[in-house]
Amino acid sequence: MKKQNNTAAIFLEFFIILFIAGLAISSFGHSFRAVQLPLIMCALTFVLVSIDLVQTFLRNRKDESKTSQASQARAVDPKLLMRLFGTVAAMLLTIAFWRIIGYFFGSIVSITGIGLFFGIKNRLLLAVIAVVVPFLLYLIFSSFLGVPLPWGFLPMLF
Amino acid sequence: MHSDLITAFIGLIQPSVLLWMVIGSFVGIVAGILPGIGASLTMALLIPISFSLPKEQGLVALIFAWSAAVYGGSISSILINTPGTGANVMTCLDGFPMARAGKARVALAISATSSMVGGLIGVFFLIIFAPPLANFAMKFGPSENFMLVLFSLVIVSFTLKGSTLKGLISAGFGFLLSFVGYDILTGEMRYTFGISYLEDGLDFLLFVIGLFAIAQILEFLSDINESILGVNKITGSYAEGIRLTIRNWKTLIKSSVMGTVIGFAPGIGTSTASVVAYGEAERSSKCPEQFGKGSPEGIVAAEASNNAVQGGALIPTLTLGIPGNSDSAVFLSGLMMYGIMPGRDLFQSNSSLVYFVFAALILSQVAFCALGLSLSGLFSKITMIPLKFLIPLLWVVSATGTYALHNNLIDVFVVILIGILGYVMRKADFPIIPLLMAVILGPMAEKNFMRAMMISDGSFSIFVNSYINIAIILLIVVVISLPLIFKKKPKSKD
After folding, report:
1. What does the alpha-carbon distance between residue B319 and residue B129 come to, in Å, rounded to a whole number?
2. Of A52, A74, A96, which one is at a domain's C-terminal end?
3. SS3 B289
4. Percentage above 70 pLDDT, chain A
5. Which of A152, B177, B241, B243 sees the fewest Cβ atoms within 10 Å?
């Protein structure tokens, strides 16, 4: 688990360094006043990330020497990985559904899809929830709060 | 003053006004629970409705919705680790572990009662000390406001469990993210990398929803056959929650006073107050090791302070016409809609209406507390829903709340990316609260930094030449050095 944490930390810290580099490079061409505090914060954050990165590398090396190969192989759960990718994909698909078939039907498809992906056996309950929740949300957001929830391309067909 | 207040209370006891109290409180609680809605948006949406009502009913609807929305945000913080607003972030730290331990009802009761007491103390300060405190608020210039933001970020990085270095990196990264978009003072477009969506910057509510709701959904995936409840059944009653709140009366009063005082620093109060109060509560606690693991004292500190901000923020709003935060800015527009102009002579020129507002503020605290306590049993059942059912529902509610921010589907996409970032941060043991705080306070910090630099003609000496700044710097030094000098030892075995 510790090794997993260290890998995630190294990945994140490299991402932050890349972001800092991007910010620092794109600071050129702007007035000094507009980028003064951002540049100070870039420098400070870079120093802090570098210190932590060195610490993480050292910790990682220490952990590696302690951990056997067999336990390393068990560190990543393939089922969890599949669930993670599947859920994120379903989230992204929800946006597409809202755009294409509208908020109400898109949400029904999304809830049903994620529920089935998780292996919900009580299909009737899932169907009821998949219809009632979007309906209630539609009432709150569209009718009361006046939010123009996406209609998708459906109205164009009629 | 007393007679004015009593007359105002009598004015509130009318069936039509009472009806709008209930409607306002209910709408506020629901809006507070829904991620991304919050008090400002609720009031903004209620203003057109309240304008069509008689003055008393309209004001009551706005005030009750405001108070209840601030409290409502704590319900989702406790039950699903997702703060309804930025003000409830610190409540997650102890509220969610309590809910997992089967004590959701107790945590909700602690939140309701401490919010009520915090709110009442804030209003008490507003009534008694408004004019002198407003004069003190005037002493907070750009450099003082900037230092206050730094102070709250240092506090949050040092208070949270885990590595302080990672907390500071998280805050620094949050600051950098807040710089994306138009520069507030020069109007220059920075760090957008050619993406037009980034021109207006990233709304902090996207981070609230992404870092908490979406990251929590991804976190839940490791145990989809379980429920939030980590134990067999829900235990404890709301009476236990009230008892625990009373037992922590010192923290309750101290946090409420801190919330009120910080609340009148324009624009900074709401998020800063709960961080500072939580940090102080942990520092002075007999059981600091319990903080972050389900400490009732942590919930008391966070909730009392964020509700006390309401009274504090109204002090400069009513006496100077400077809103203490976005909520009071929307409320101010509601007051002006009824012809109430804020200023030093408001208490003389329109005293009956001002006392009506005070009386409504007092009653609104009691109303949301009663509603919150009576619904705590029902709300706590959410923790028993199997995660395989809860996850798709949480996702659709979060996505709808996100879309409602700007009616933009790209926001939903961005919130997923922020959620993945939050998930990776959790896995890498990086605290997410400093990042969120920095994103919220970043634009305020930069605006005040630039103003201070303009005033001082580019000299950094402005940050050390006022007694408020020196006091803040000393406090920062104390916060940083104390843990290094005295290693924390639990004072009690409890």
Report:
1. 11
2. A74
3. helix
4. 86
5. B243
- State how far the Cα of B418 lies from the Cα of B366, in Å rounded to an integer: 37
**Cβ atoms within 10 Å, residue B460:** 10
Is there a single domain that holds both residue A117 and residue A58? no
ipTM value > 0.85 = yes
One domain for residues A125 and A137: yes
List alpha helices for B408-466, DSSP H. 409-427, 433-455
Domain ranges of chain B: 2-485
Determine whether the interchain pair B168/A20 forms a contact, defined as Cβ–Cβ distance below 8 Å. Answer: no
Classify burial at B225, counting beta carbons within 10 Å of its beta carbon; exposed 0-12, middle 13-18, buried 19 or more: exposed
The four Cα atoms B29, B31, B36, B39 give a dihedral, to 10 degrees, of -80
Q: What percent of chain B has pLDDT over 90?
A: 19
Q: Minimal Cα distance from B163: which residue of A? A: A52
- Give how many domains chain A has, as a whole number: 2
How far is the C-alpha of B90 from the C-alpha of A80, rounded, in Å? 29
Cα(B324)–Cα(B34) distance, integer angstroms: 24
Interval B175-191: pLDDT, tens: 999 999 888 778 888 88
- Nearest residue to B37 via CA among B401, B334, B372: B401
Q: Which domain holds residue A138?
A: 78-157
Residues of A in contact with B222 (CB under 8 A): 77, 80
Torsion, CA B364, CA B28, CA B324, CA B305, rounded to 10: 70
Nearest residue to A9 (alpha-carbon basis) of B208, B161, B210, B162: B162
DSSP structural state of residue B231: S
> In this complex, do A95 and B179 lie within 8 Å of one another by their Cβ atoms?
no
Which tokens belong to B140?
A: 């907070």
pLDDT digits (tens, 9 = 90+) for A85-117: 999 999 999 999 999 999 999 999 999 999 999
- Confidence class for position B146, pLDDT limits 50, 70, 90: confident
Does the reported pTM lie above 0.90? Answer: no
Task: Tell me: pLDDT of A10 over 80.
Answer: yes
Query: Within this chain, do residues A14 and A60 fall inside the same structural domain, yes or no?
Result: yes
Residues A89 and A152 in one domain: yes
Give the pLDDT confidence score for residue A152 in this predicted structure.
79
Interface probe for B, chosen from A35, A37, A116 (most Cβ of B below 10 Å), is A37
| Cβ B491 vs Cβ B286: under 8 Å | yes
The closest CB to that of B221, out of A22, A80, A120, belongs to A80
- Considering only CB atoms, B391 lies closest to which of A9, A114, A119, namely A114
Q: How far is CA B291 from CA B22, B94, B158, B439, in A?
A: 35, 7, 13, 24
* Rg of chain A (C-alpha set): 24
The reply to whether A57 and A90 lie within a common domain is no
Chain mean position to CA A25:
26
Q: Check whether residue A51 and residue A95 sit in a common domain.
A: no
For B334, the 3-state DSSP assignment is: helix
